[in-house]
Design a protein that fits this description.
Blueprint (H helix, E strand, L loop, with lengths): L4 H6 L7 E6 L1 H4 L15 E7 L4 H4 L9 E6 L2 E7 H10 L2 H4 L9 E4 L1 H8 L9 H15 L10 H11 L3 H20 L10 H8 L5 H21 L8 H19 L1
Parallel strand pairs: 2-4
Antiparallel strand pairs: 1-2, 1-5, 3-4
Helix pairs in contact: 4-12, 6-12, 7-9, 9-10, 9-11
């Protein structure tokens, strides 16, 4: 499974401007269910980071919408970030973006030296400020479990499963995964986006093997656990933003220098 060549050809952010690309979502979590399975509600999700030419930095050109391009093509859902936008999301502690720094090697599609510099600097983004993001995203999944929004490639199929189980089991699985990842982060200081140790359990939730009441009870327990882990964590309260700013400068300069 790889990003279709026609999409890469159309999007320079996936091609000549790319410094880092990888799978995200269910693929990177080791929980992807192919659409040949009648219970599949998964897209093929990927993310990429790019450095456009220097006239985007010295001139008036803008990359995408506020540094972001989204490509939805059939079962593919791809997000491309300009490097400074990506690093700003890392700084803010966006769980879906920060997780990309901790993937197993098999889930990275392309890593240039500039992309490697970001990955090697992942400790810069490890701080207790991620608590706000993990809690916020988890509450978002908790809300969407019972307040449905069906869209995209798997919209109708997902709607049928909600009608079958009475709640959105995919949101439920994301909810429990986010909370467990957050607890691990504050205890160990690192993330485990590929869920080798609990993928079976999370897939059972995704497949509707637990009631809504059971999922909510587990979430309540995990919300208490993540708060406790956050309070006891030895991580710094906030990241060093001056160092992160310098990283952004070095990444862009390195990528432009590589091409020249």
């Amino acid at each position: 499974m790889s990003i279709p060549k026609d999409i890469i050809k159309e999007q320079k952010g996936l091609g000549e401007w790319n410094i880092l690309s990888f799978y995200r979502g269910s693929v990177s979590h080791g929980m992807y269910v192919p659409n040949s399975d009648p219970n599949s509600i998964d897209d093929k999700d990927a993310m990429a980071v790019c450095v456009p030419p220097k006239d985007y930095y010295y001139g008036l050109k803008k990359y995408g919408s506020r540094g972001t391009k989204e490509i939805k093509r059939g079962e593919w859902d791809i997000v491309i970030y300009e490097a400074r936008k990506y690093i700003s999301l890392l700084e803010k502690g966006n769980p879906n973006v920060v997780s990309s720094l901790w993937l197993d090697d098999v889930y990275y599609l392309n890593i240039t030296p500039a992309g490697r510099l970001i990955l090697d600097s992942r400790e810069l983004f490890s701080a207790k400020h991620l608590y706000r993001s993990f809690i916020g995203y988890a509450h978002g999944q908790l809300h969407r479990m019972t307040h449905y929004k069906f869209e995209g490639y798997m919209g109708e199929k997902r709607k049928r499963l909600v009608e079958k189980y009475g709640y959105d089991t995919k949101n439920a699985s994301h909810l429990i995964r986010l909370l467990k990842m957050g607890i691990e982060f504050f205890v160990e200081g690192r993330l485990y986006p590929t869920r080798k140790h609990d993928a079976t359990y999370l897939l059972e939730i995704k497949n509707g093997e637990y009631t809504l009441e059971q999922v909510k009870a587990e979430a309540e327990r995990l919300f208490r656990s993540i708060e406790d882990a956050y309070i006891k964590s030895d991580l710094p309260a906030e990241p060093d933003r001056d160092k992160i700013n310098q990283l952004a400068v070095e990444v862009v300069a390195m990528a432009l220098g590589e091409r020249e």
